[in-house]
Amino acid sequence: MQRLNPICEAKRCREDGTTFVYFPFYHDGDHKVFLNTQIAIPPEYWNKRTRSVKENLPSNHGDPQKLNDEIERLEKLACEFIKLARQQGIQPLGQYIKETFTPTLNLEKLFGDQLQRHATYIPEKKKTEEDFFNQIADYIKSKERKVKPATLQVFRSMQRHLEAFEVHSKQPITFAALDFQFYEQFVDFLTFDYELPRKKIPQYGVRVNTIGKTIHQFRIFILDRVRRKIIPKIDLHDFKVPTEETDAIYLTFDEIGKIYVADLTDHPELMPARDLFVLGCLTGLRFSDFSALHPEDLRQNMLYKKQEKSVHWVVIPLRKEAKEIFTEQFKEAIPGICNAQFNKKVKEIAKLAGLHETIKFSYRKGNKQIEVKRPKWAWVTSHTARRSFCTNEYLKGTPYKMIMQISGHKREKDFYKYIRIDPEAAAQKVMELWLERGDYEVFKNPRNQIINLQQ
């Protein structure tokens, strides 16, 4: 019997910090689908070597032995299911296996009553009039070996938004239907009616920049199909990409210092995340990069890292504290943690460090301006580290082009949008520059001297 080696990857982490255990199934040698066991645990409690749940799994996530027994049962069930489906010559095999497999699958009932009729399997998601979603799937597949996994996730997000819109509108999406009315209705749906996934309390509508990213990728997809002469030319002139300036915080060196020295004696589980966050604040790396550092990346007191998003090499000098963290706390390896769980932990750390200042941000939703007030710790995320590095270096007078060499920004306008300087910090910076240049007083003859001479 073939083996289906279970995985529990941090990159698949959900908002609650858990990840499903999956069986990857390579159905044609190169392409694979993932069979969901519906068993979810924090990924740090998964033993990659033995491919099993660790014995120290917190009790609120289940009994480790029972979970491992269930994983073993499901593997046998999946393998037997795949074997029988192959014997029947079902095509497309991967799609059929993915859509049909569940932890409660009854092979006797399935094979006794239904399988013979599935010799030529028809997927549940049937083709629309002009194969609209099939074309999206083909487009994404064509990009798998050309773009980074994060970019593929953007494409799949676009696909999910369109699928949800089709369900909402109760009308099949076709290429012939792509006009200005479609654009308006789609944007309205994303703004007000799209239900955000994995929310305990239902929330509706995505932010303006998320809509803009979806429309941008949608335009690129359509133009790709036109260039390949799969569909006739479509006028996308009115498919505008909405944008708005994002609100985001940065932390000053003083605030980062408070986090660095925060007493976490009663919360030892937060220490690795705290040190990793401070390392990010002092290097300017993205979470995907600073969470994947290796000891060999350090050479001559500098980090040499190929950025995952831009695929460019950056060389980062290390401050004393950054080098200590990397060589002492993480001398063996960076602890594995997903972004969602990391964000949850750094918020708790920032709260313990005393970052309680109330911060108010706003965003547009249709014609309304929505204001949100939260304590500063609640705004802290993994990306705060990168923004803090760029902003602090800029305020300290480091030439922006040198900062861009470290951060990996390619365009000045993107860099200036990225840094975050509040009005008080900007005013203080201008005052320091006046004093540094010696032009705090701009008139050679003060006004009172002129008045005295006139008298």
Structure notes:
With 455 residues, the protein is mainly alpha-helical. The protein folds into 3 domains: 10-118, no CATH class; 132-227, no CATH class; 253-437, hpI Integrase, Chain A. Helices cover 47% and strands 11% of the residues. It contains 18 helices and 9 strands. It has a 3-stranded antiparallel β-sheet. Strand 8 (358-365) and strand 9 form a beta hairpin. The longest helix has 24 residues, at 64-87. The model is unreliable at 113-130 (pLDDT under 50).
Counting DSSP E segments of at least 2 residues, the number of strands comes to 9
Q: Ends: how far apart?
A: 107 Å
- Which of globular, elongated, flat, extended, rod-shaped describes the shape? globular
Considering DSSP H and I runs of 4 or more, what fraction of the residues is helical?
40-55%
Q: Biggest β-sheet, characterized?
A: 3 strands, antiparallel
Unreliable sequence segments = 113-130
**DSSP summary: helix tally:** 18
- The CATH class of the largest domain: Mainly Alpha
Radius of gyration: 27 Å
* CATH fold annotation of the largest domain: hpI Integrase, Chain A
User: SSE order, as H and E?
Assistant: EEEEHHHHHHHHHHEEEHHEEHHHHHH
Structural class: mainly alpha
Q: What CATH architecture of the largest domain would you give?
A: Orthogonal Bundle
